[in-house]
Amino acid sequence: MTIPEPLDRARALTNIGLHDGLPQWAYAVELQRSRLRELQAEGHRLSELLRGSPEELAKVSMEQLIEWNSRLVADSHFLLVAVRHVLQLARHLRDRTSDDDHRADALLKAFLRGQHGRAEMIRGILEHFDRYWIEGKQDRRKGMSGWPKPVLPVDVGDKLHLHVGANQVDLLVLADDALELAHKLYEVWSEVTPWQDELPDPTDPPDDLTYLDELLGSESTEIDAGVG
Question: Would the pTM of this model clear 0.85, i.e. be above it?
């Protein structure tokens, strides 16, 4: 059964803001921000011990430092993935809102033209790590040239940076701004989605086939030969 274009567009627009859309990925960003803050606090504690007395220094093992670094790299990657999903939902919202409503487009452009414009690209580098760290792919435009550098988290003061090649991400600022973007996009979505019109589920046709014909704008309903 072919879904009429207006219904398909309305259904797609509705799904952008349902529980597995913007709310889901706003939660994911918030979760990763919380994890990164905890890791930042742990990093400060480890730094204090490393600068302390011999007794305090003895409390820190190389295994602890490696584990902290590994967790930080992993949770940074997961944050970038969540941010990528928010940006993709922003694009879908932009493409499905009316021509006279440019708020989603303006929010997306402001985010990408600011300090986070390379966040998606860095997510792609981490996603395809084998191209750079194993195959030695060179791409100066993406800040990946010369001998592959390890992904390096750097904790300085209240800043938490991730260095990927020649690229740098301010992780906590990215999380704050992405969460704000998700909330603003949800506000736009709430205003443009026609909740007052109950949308029939195209995968659950009503028993009244006459109503279905009217919905599809045709005189007959095509039923697959293999059904029933």
Answer: no
